[in-house]
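To fix ideas, we reproduce below one chain and its tokenised fold.
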Amino acid sequence: GKSTTVGTFEKLVGKENVDKTTLKQLVSSEFNYINLRGKIFHIMSLDEAEDIYNFESVIERLRDPTITSMVKWAAKGITFPNTALHILVGNTLPKNRKKTIAFFRSVKMVVHFSLPLGGDWVFLDFIDEEEKSGILNLLILLNKIQRERKGLYGLLSLEEGEREYRKGSDPFTSFIMQIFDKDPESELQREQVMEYINILAENANIILPESISTTYLSRLLHSLFNATTRRTTESDEKGTEHKTYYRNIKFKFDIS
């Protein structure tokens, strides 16, 4: 959680180098951006984002090389270098309602801890070595990036950033990403794809949306895997049959 992250970071780099200004504070007043000046890390929770209109604009603004904040002693405010790495934590990632590319350009790294952190280690036997390293190793990595790059820019490409963020903000999208792979030589019939999704979801106890339209599924597969559709029509004395195929994707798991 946020408190664990903040406490760990403060102990290693000093409280004076870590800022905890909240998303709500940044949205509510231009004067609060001054808190970010000269900081190494800025820890901010995203749990309240769903209830905040236009929170995406704040995230986009934190990407800029410089930040301007209003202050009482300067009518036009002051501008300072954006030295902080902005660490956004939360139980879930909020959906990007603006659907802007600029928002996803702000995403440089997504770290997903799938099980609870902190003092409750009943999950110890179920987590892998990467998750056992926890926030401490994450801090070491970020501190190294900060020292060597002097600014967190370009760690993830735009495509990778959008992909990883969407994975964390949409359980269904995350599920689809885990069960298909790209394959330019492969072609799957739509009915087989739907059956495959339903079988794996049932086995993994994944709750699917109540209705998955073919249009939505086609767009999702295209955005994640660059899958395209091919439609065929066959007619005989029994009638006409239409079929749809998804190209460029394959099943990751064999359910036969």
Notes: The chain has nine helices and eight strands. Confidence is low (pLDDT under 50) at residues 115-123, 149-154. The first strand starts at residue 18 and ends at 19. Strands lie at 18-19, 41-45, 66-71, 74-81, 85-89, 180-189, 228-236, 239-251.
